Amino acid sequence: MFRELRRQDRKMDNNEIIEVLKKCQYGVLSTVGIDGYAYGVPLGYVYLNNSIYFHCATVGHKLDNIRNNDKVSFCIVGEVDPVPEKFTTKYKSVILFGKASEVNDDEKYSALIAILEKYAGQYMDKGKEYIKNAGEKVKVIKISIDYIEGKTNR
After folding, report:
1. Residue 72 CA to chain centroid, in angstroms?
2. Using one digit for the tens of pLDDT, what is the confidence trace for 93-102?
3. Which fold would CATH assign to domain 8-153?
4. Whole-prediction pTM value?
């Protein structure tokens, strides 16, 4: 169903993939619109329980697309280091494919706490209050991973 990496010599092992997922700050979520066009949007995320979670507003383009087609991809690029004299770039990247769905209640709260820890860990008390006040004004989306692959050029 999913294509194999062409350059098998650059394939990352699972530990390296998880390291990139945990370390990087942003990724690009790609969805398909009702019009058939791809839509890619950069966003912050957290890797938790073998899934990707992100928060967003309660309405918008990506949510419309996910409601229409829950199949998504998510791409993360880390440790980019151009090597101009060799006409190449050293990098680590991860791409995953999965199904996106809204989560609620305990799972939503756990994801928001994990996002808070990742991006604003020094403000946990204020952040928890912010989460409490945000309530229904924020959605949390989970990407259940169907396939994941990492590629590196060291």
Report:
1. 10
2. 999 999 999 9
3. Pnp Oxidase; Chain A (2.30.110)
4. 0.93
